[in-house]
Structures are given as C-alpha cells and as structure tokens.
Amino acid sequence: MRISEASRASGVSARSLRHYEDEGLIVPGRFSNGFRDYCQSTIDRVLVIRSLLESGLPVRLIREVLPGLTDGLDAGTEVVCSEFLHEVQGYRDRLAARIAVLSGQQAALDAYLREARRTDR
C-alpha cells in the first residue's frame, strides 16, 4: 500500500512514517516508480513503534530492541527482552525522579500562591 493508505491503516501521519524510515525503524519496499510500498508487517511494526513512543521511550532505545520485538522468536529474543526490560525500568526510574522534582516544584508554587492570596486580602 502507498504511504497515504499506510497512514490511514496505522493512524500515523505520512510525515511520521517518513520519520520512522529516516530513523531506521522501518524499511518500506518501493514501487518501480520509487513510491513507498508498505506491507501489513510494516504497518504492524509501525503500531508497535507508535505504542512505544507514546509510552515516552526514546527512539534510540526503540531502534535497539525493535528487531527482537517484531521479527518473531529466535534464540536471542530472551536476552533482547531482558536487556530491553532493564532499559525500560531505568528509563521509568529516571522519569519517576523527574516527576518527583516537578511535584516538589508544583507544591512549592502552590504554597507560594496560597500565602500570596492570604496577604492579598
């Protein structure tokens, strides 16, 4: 299918599909006229990519583990999944730390606003 059809089928914009290709996340086929040709397995891969990106994972991490997640089971899949889960846990922990800092800043701003409203009366 062409890029417009792939965009509709996957719910991902044509621009995003081109970006995924530029990042090496997908490799669509080509028609004889040079237009991209997306097969169902590429669409399935796009859906996995989209899900991982929506979870906040960086493209670097997705690029590293995507072959093991989408190319079926082989001898190295357990190792890839174990390493991937370790990386995801680390990413999640860093995200939790950032959230804690932001929550502290938000609480400080809330306290400041409460105090400012009291003295404003």
UniProtKB/TrEMBL annotation:
This is MerR family transcriptional regulator. CDD domains: HTH_MerR-like_sg3. The lineage of its organism: Bacteria, Bacillati, Actinomycetota, Actinomycetes, Kitasatosporales. Residues 1-68 form the HTH merR-type domain. SMART domains: HTH_MERR. It holds the Pfam family MerR_1. Keywords: DNA-binding, Repressor, Transcription, Transcription regulation. PANTHER family: MERR-FAMILY TRANSCRIPTIONAL REGULATOR, REDOX-CYCLING DRUG-SENSING TRANSCRIPTIONAL ACTIVATOR SOXR.
